[in-house]
Specification:
The complex is a heterodimer of chains A (670) and B (317). With 670 residues, chain A is mainly alpha-helical. Chain B has one domain. Classes of the chains: A mainly alpha (670), B mainly alpha (317). At the A-B interface, α16, α17, α18, α22 and β3 of A face α2, β1, α3, α4 and α5 of B.
Chain lengths: 670, 317
């Protein structure tokens, strides 16, 4: 059987699980059945996809007699689809394993169990679809299934609003993608991807299609300024679904962009890379600043997804620009960096969301300022979260560093551009990437340090218990993968070569053949990095220092109350909180993304009431873009409301008028 | 091969052994310039040994992260310092990491130290961590922009290649390199918490940053952290020497005599830099915390301007 058929069989299995979930949700058997089944199916599809990536998928396109009658539903797995299938199914397998344990705490299993496998099936179908109709249908299916999961806890405060905003933005995104595909397909309806490739659109139309794809895929991926739904919707879902939405679904959106921009929309034009680079860098910076200011653990992670998607789009923009200016070695480097970061982000973001879910189960709290001291109470969860936080902060020798290092190496090749705009824009974007990475480290010091370190700030945090074994196993697996990819980056880069080859027509030099597992994506004299040696050196020198000191100096240890300059305060509220931690950054960078209002209410001497600091952050983008938009929509709706109170004669004339206008337009169409 | 390994080990030991001496020189210079006699040059070594022999006291609320952090910070700084060419380039493992990886290794040290500051749950620790995070967020991009300028000039982020290029005749005098040098010095001052950014010799003051983070450390943990901080200072000085003043260092496959000569020259250069740092610190006052972003932001802009100037000069040629 071909890889396509196996994948479709897997998707059919997932849809059957969805039905089973609906039937048996209330039964005790339902949860293990759905999650266990999803785990097995995802693992199988992961194996199929990895095989297709390594050994090349079949050249054939599978056509089913569904969908549009003259095309049918087409499915094809090439190296690009195979890579994204690996990402999605790896996340899905981890999330299913995690949910086997975590799902026990679910209040309304009948609101989650049917939609979870359907959501997985939707993502998989988008990736294997090979015509616009099947693609958009699967895309909408994926959106709606995830919307249902966002609404699983509809009674909680704000979740209904999150679901509403998500639905509106998702429809808008699909609409933009529909336009993109329509433009590429042309008037004679070449809806199959093969037909689109065979006859690429004219330059002007291709440019419009590119823009529509950027808007449509970007709104799903969470690019600024279309990101507003993401920090609302991702945290609202149950944690394993949040992990999938952030780790996998945003990647499906990136896939849509890559598929249209690099594969279907014809020969590249360097000018198109400018908006991608700018929007990517802006998303990175604004995402990380929002993450640094937010006080809700899961929302911090969601904002950080926006940041990472920004970095991915920067790399994609560079790849596109290099590709358009015929510097394919550099384009291959940037594309490899983008794909590797996509994979890495799926690993550590899932891991972090699992950890956040474990914290939520153990304490019932997501607010940073009500947590604290969890590392002593949940040591394993804490350790895995720490690995995830270090990986996402791009610390060597973990995986996040490798992909960001490669992005920076690609930026360093930008002097080769002949266009002045790109020459100056690329280093500016590179500086933005560096700033983003540095702020991300600060953000995750805060996001890990405030809840896991220090003293508990609430009774719930004080009583927290370690997560269950299955959840821990899922986290341990992802943490191990973060370390493995970081230590053996060459193998990961080589595995990506077929996908890069497909998109760029070139790939980075083979890395596995380098001595000592070093990676040198351009040339050894240009810059090289060896994850294995760096990891070995760190471990060796740390253990040597520790052994020498314990052996020859002193190994004695005494526990005592904290010193704190001689005036320790026993009240845990005197610790630094999330807000106080981010205050210096807020003061320096806050105005970039927010309208910051700090009001200090200081009682006059003699008054006995407490002093207060009121802090209000409002999102500049929301104020500038969305508030006027909402106003316009509301006004228009009020105006259009009149149309609902016409007499039947007036309705008839409206219908008649519309018909005449349409016929005239059709008749005068060139 | 054996000789290569010996020189690599020599490099690894050199960076750790010379670091306290550099700190001693800076302190002695400052003492002399303020007409004090000051501690002997070798006092930092004695301090570290004294601290290492004492029992470590750990706060009740601290987690395991607290007593592992010193070794993590020490190891990442040591590895980073060993990867910077001091007396010779192209040592056995010099290709294991480039300048970007070295910056990231230092970032790893900062990450864990900031976490340790939050671990005990006191307000001083949080204060230190939060400010250190801000300084790091400013200094790291400035550093990357400097790397960008260097890579434009030398065509590499690999320090051995950069140093070799800088000793060749192809460099010439460039305005951009001057800007990069100034920017790198600013970053070095900020990263090491020297005056005017932070004062390493104060305690119990609201202005302290690094010292606030490590306030709860004692005994061997403090010794290891202090040693790491000293190594970081010598790392930045070595970096400046390696990139901007590499003359005398043994380039590529040099003879043993060249390498020994290179080591002597390196020590002289390092100690000269220590005297200069001491003199600079004596002549300037510490700035307010929220002036620091302007100061380090200046470095970012200088580095960027340097890169742009390079572009312009290349097209005019």
């Amino acid at each position: 059987m071909s890889a396509e058929a196996l994948c479709l069989a897997g998707d059919a299995g997932l849809l059957a699980l969805a039905v089973a979930g609906a039937l048996f949700a209330a039964k005790p058997l339902g949860r293990p059945l759905v999650y266990g089944g999803a785990l097995v199916l995802s693992a199988l599809m992961l194996a199929v996809a990895a095989g297709a990536l390594a050994f090349g998928g079949g050249a054939e396109t599978l056509v089913l007699p569904l969908g549009l009658p003259w095309i049918g539903a087409r499915f094809h797995i090439d190296a690009l689809s195979a890579f994204f299938l690996v990402v999605v199914n790896l996340s899905a397998a981890a999330a299913s394993l995690y949910a086997l344990g975590y799902g026990r705490t679910e209040h309304d299993p009948e609101r989650v169990l049917p939609f979870y496998p359907a959501f997985l099936a939707g993502m998989n179908l988008v990736l294997v679809a090979a015509d616009a109709y099947t693609f958009l249908l699967s895309w909408e299916f994926m959106s709606l299934a995830s919307w249902a999961l966002v609404m699983a806890r509809h009674s909680e405060d704000q979740n209904a609003r999150a679901g509403y905003v998500y639905l509106v933005m998702a429809s808008f995104g699909t609409f933009a993608l529909l336009i993109a595909f329509a433009l590429v397909a042309g008037l004679d309806g070449r809806f199959a991807f093969e037909a689109m490739r065979a006859a690429p659109p004219a330059a002007g139309v291709a440019m419009l299609a590119f823009a529509a794809a950027l808007i449509g895929a970007g709104s799903k991926a969470g690019l600024v300024p279309l990101h507003v739904w993401l920090p609302l919707a991702h945290p609202a879902a149950p944690s394993h679904v949040s992990a999938l939405m952030s780790g996998a679904m945003t990647k499906v959106a990136v896939y849509a962009f890559i598929r249209i921009a690099f594969d279907l929309a014809g020969p590249p034009d360097w000018r198109l890379s400018i908006p991608v680079l700018i929007v990517g860098a802006a998303s990175g910076l604004i995402g990380v600043l929002q993450a640094l200011m937010d006080n809700d653990l899961k929302r911090v992670l969601a904002y950080s997804t926006i940041e990472n998607i920004g970095l991915i789009f920067v790399a994609l923009g560079l790849a596109y620009a290099f590709h358009a200016t015929d510097f394919d070695a550099a384009a291959a480097l940037a594309m490899t960096a983008a794909l590797l970061h996509i994979f890495n982000h799926a690993l550590f973001k899932s891991l972090l969301f699992f950890g956040a879910g474990a914290v939520l189960t153990a304490t019932g709290e997501r607010r940073l300022n009500r947590l604290g001291g969890l590392l002593n109470r949940m040591p394993s969860t804490g350790l895995f979260m720490l690995v995830g936080a270090a990986a996402i902060s791009a610390l060597p020798p973990l995986n996040g560093f490798v992909s960001e290092w490669m992005i920076l190496q690609a930026v360093l090749l930008s002097p080769a551009f002949s266009e002045w705009t790109l020459k100056i824009l690329a280093p500016a974007v590179g500086a933005g990437v560096a700033l983003t990475a540095a702020l991300a480290a600060a953000c995750f010091v805060r996001a890990f340090g405030i809840p896991f370190l220090g003293r508990p700030r609430s009774e719930a945090a004080e009583r927290a218990k370690e997560a269950d074994r299955l959840s821990l196993a899922a986290m341990a697996g992802l943490a191990a993968l973060c370390a493995i990819v970081g230590i053996f980056p060459g193998q990961a880069i080589d595995a990506l070569s077929p996908a890069v080859d497909l998109l760029i027509g070139a790939h980075v030099p083979n890395q596995s053949s380098m001595p000592w597992l070093t990676i040198a994506p351009v040339a050894a004299s240009r810059g090289s990095y060896n994850g294995l040696l760096v990891a070995a050196f760190i471990v060796a020198s740390a253990s040597m220092a520790s052994t020498v000191i314990h052996r020859f100096a002193s190994g004695a240890l005494r526990r005592a109350p904290a010193w704190d300059c001689g005036f320790p305060d026993p009240a845990p509220t005197t610790q630094y909180t999330g807000e106080s931690f981010s205050q210096p950054v807020r003061r320096v960078f806050g105005q970039l993304a927010f309208v910051v209002e700090e009001r200090i209410d200081m009682p006059r001497p003699g008054e006995t009431r407490a002093a207060h600091l009121n802090l209000r952050l409002t999102d500049r983008i929301w104020n500038l873009l969305y508030v006027p938009l909402i106003l316009v929509v509301e006004r228009t709706a009020v105006q259009l409301n009149r149309l609902q109170f016409l007499t039947i004669r007036q309705y008839m004339s409206v219908v008649f008028g519309a018909l005449v206008v349409l016929l005239v337009v059709l008749a005068s169409w060139p | 091969m054996i000789l290569d390994l010996v020189f690599q080990l020599l490099q690894v030991m050199l960076v750790i052994l010379i670091a306290p001496l550099l700190t001693g020189v800076v302190r002695a210079t400052k003492a002399r310039l303020t007409r004090r006699r000051g501690p002997p040059l070798l006092q930092p070594y004695r301090d570290i040994l004294r601290l290492a022999r004492k029992e470590a006291i750990v706060a009740d609320s601290a987690s395991w992260l607290f007593h592992h952090t010193p070794y993590i910070v020490f190891a990442s700084t040591w590895v980073a310092a060993s990867l910077i060419p001091t007396f010779a380039t192209d040592l056995l493992f010099s290709w294991a990491a480039d300048l970007i990886a070295i910056i990231a290794l230092l970032g790893a040290g900062r990450f864990f130290l900031s976490l340790a500051g939050l671990d005990v749950g006191t307000s001083f620790g949080g204060l230190g961590s939060s400010r250190e995070s801000l300084f790091g967020a400013l200094a790291e991009p400035a550093m990357i922009v400097i790397v960008f300028t260097l890579a434009l000039v030398a065509g590499s982020t690999q320090l051995s290649t950069v140093a070799a290029y800088m000793t060749s005749d192809a460099v010439g005098l460039r305005v951009s390199l001057g800007m990069a040098l100034v920017a790198l010095i600013i970053v070095a001052i900020a990263e090491n918490g020297r005056i005017p950014v932070d004062n390493p010799s104060t305690h119990l003051e609201l202005t302290m940053v690094h010292e606030a983070m490590i306030l709860e450390y004692s005994g061997r943990h403090l010794a290891v952290i202090e040693l790491a901080a000293m190594m970081k200072l010598s790392l930045y000085v070595s970096l400046i020497i390696c990139v901007f003043f590499p003359w005398g260092a043994a380039i590529a496959d040099a003879s043993v005599a060249d390498r020994v000569f290179g080591a002597i020259v390196y020590v002289v250069k390092l100690l000269t830099a220590g005297v200069a740092l001491g003199a600079f610190e004596t002549s300037i006052a510490k700035m307010r915390v929220f002036r620091v972003p302007d100061f380090v932001g200046g470095a970012l802009m200088l580095g960027f301007l340097g890169a742009l100037l390079l572009f312009v000069s290349r097209t005019l040629k």
